[in-house]
Design goal:
CATH superfamily: Aminoglycoside phosphotransferase (APH), C-terminal lobe
Number of helices: 8
Largest sheet: 5 strands, antiparallel
CATH topology: Aminoglycoside 3'-phosphotransferase, Chain: A, domain 2
Number of strands: 10
Structural class: alpha+beta
CATH class: Alpha Beta
Oligomer: single chain
Distance between the termini: 47 Å
Length: about 250
């Protein structure tokens, strides 16, 4: 081992990589409880849990590389993206987990949270009013009831690992629970619209693409302020603000 790499770090949690081991430190041990149980139940490739000594969770690295990264073109094949869609479908068809999921809100609660966030973004000059207004209209399509499924809950493209055309592992399960299938699909394809058709081809069922696009707007609007406050840059090329601009 030549170095310890900081994978992500902010006030809520941090992840370090030491050789082939990831060390996750979380201020909220309930998130770690969910992550460990979700990985044991999910019928998809997940990392091996090596040991746990609160507040640290040690998991093994998974082979391969991330399917992509937000803000960068993906070098993964169309077949790899389709394979990710197929694996996600397997997860969504699994029995519901015994816990409801963290921070799960119904359409009414979500709409109220979104309206408050939109007002804050405009009032504080974070984003132009026309950009926020247009994306709030687009996001409305996601504010409808859904049938809960077993979801990952934070299925960012960086969390899906592939080797060639095969999915080798999905990491970071702390937000897993009973959720919206289209939210998972939207999170995976956020900033990678060119691969949406590949993912849906692998997922293998009729999907309302307008609702997925609505979730892109909704997730981005809700995420901008949090990202700025936690040291991330949603204004970087290809990231959340560019996703919002692409709806204009």
């Amino acid at each position: 081992m030549d170095e310890v790499k900081v994978v992500v770090a902010h006030s809520e949690r941090a992840t370090l990589r030491a050789g082939d081991v990831f060390l996750k430190v979380d201020a909220d041990q309930a998130r770690t409880d969910v992550e460990v149980e979700a990985m044991s139940l999910a019928p998809v490739p997940t990392p091996e849990v090596l040991w746990r000594e609160p507040p640290v969770l040690a998991i093994a690295a998974v082979p391969g590389t991330a399917l992509g990264r937000l803000g960068e073109p993906s070098t993964a094949s169309a077949a790899a993206w389709a394979a990710a869609g197929a694996v996600i479908r397997r997860l969504h068809e699994a029995p519901l987990p015994p816990w409801p999921g963290r921070r799960r809100r119904g359409p009414g609660e979500l709409a109220a949270e979104l309206d408050g966030e939109c007002e804050s973004l405009v009032t504080n000059g974070v984003l132009p009013a026309d950009l926020v207004t247009r994306n709030r209209r687009v996001a409305a399509a996601a504010l409808r009831p859904w049938t809960p499924v077993f979801t990952h809950g934070d299925l960012q493209v960086e969390h899906v690992f592939v080797d060639g055309d095969e999915v080798t592992g999905i990491i970071d399960w702390s937000e897993a629970g009973r959720g919206n299938a289209l939210f998972d699909l939207a999170t995976l394809t956020l900033g990678h619209e060119e691969h949406l058709d590949d993912v849906i081809a692998g997922y293998g069922t009729d999907v309302d693409l307008d609702v997925i696009r609505a979730w892109w707007s909704l997730r981005s609007l809700l995420g901008v302020r949090w990202l700025v406050e936690h040291g991330f840059d949603p204004f970087a090329p290809g990231c959340e603000v560019d996703v919002l601009r692409s709806r204009l």
